[in-house]
Amino acid sequence: MKTIERLPDHKGGHFPDGAHVVRVNRLPWTPFNLVGTPDGPVFKLLAVDWRREMLVMILNVPGGMAVEPHYHLEEAQGYIMTGDFEYEYGHIFAENYIGEGAAIAHSATIGKDDVLQFSIIFGGLCGVRPDGGPDLSVIVGCQAAYEMAKANNAADHIAPPPPGWKSRWQQQDN
């Protein structure tokens, strides 16, 4: 059995075998900028699976915010921990689980309280073109979420992308 250097109790990190430990309470909140909304959502990036183009995060969206239309490149899953919001599929409350399909565009209006959500996102999110398709000029997927968290000193627990890694979405034409 290999010897693994254990992490101190106050520090998260990642290991060569793919394991990682996240000290969530010690992670700073990072602005989640999909469409450049100041005072908008913030997130704590928990994991990135570069092979599957999947990211896991806790997202906090301010109460009263109108979430701009955005496009899901692939599926997204969310467990709503606090707050509520209205969107195309109905009124969503705390303790609801939502699964959103691939290749959909939608928006939401957050209720008076912040929505705190545990999210798993495949592929990423982007803006919406006037014809309803994906605007691939700005994608918030694994790479963007990792870079935002890293710039905020909130990604030490995540292994960086493999050399030469590119999202399959970055290789498509707008």
Written overview of the protein:
The protein has 174 residues and is mostly beta strands. The chain is globular. Strand 13 and strand 14 form a beta hairpin. 6% of the residues lie in helices and 43% in strands. It has a domain of 115 residues: Jelly Rolls (Sandwich). It is built from one helix and 14 strands. The chain has a six-stranded antiparallel β-sheet. Strands 9-8-11-6-13-14 form a six-stranded antiparallel β-sheet.
Task: Give the helices and strands, then pairings.
Layout: E1 13-14, E2 20-21, E3 30-31, E4 42-49, E5 54-61, E6 66-72, E7 76-82, E8 84-87, E9 90-93, E10 97-100, E11 104-110, E12 115-122, E13 125-128, E14 134-140, H1 142-151
Compressed to H and E, one letter per element, the order equals EEEEEEEEEEEEEEH
Number of distinct beta strands: 14
Structural class: mainly beta
| Average pLDDT rating | 91
Runs in which pLDDT lies below 50 for 5 or more consecutive residues are none
Tell me about the largest β-sheet. 6 strands, antiparallel
Radius of gyration: 17 Å
Features:
six-stranded antiparallel β-sheet; single chain; globular; 14 strands; Jelly Rolls; mainly beta; 174 residues; 1 helix
Overview in brief:
The protein has about 170 residues and is mostly beta strands. The chain has one helix at about 140-150; strands at about 15, 20, 30, 40-50, 55-60, 65-70, 75-80, 85, 90-95, 95-100, 105-110, 115-120, 125-130, 135-140. It is about 5% helix and about 45% strand.
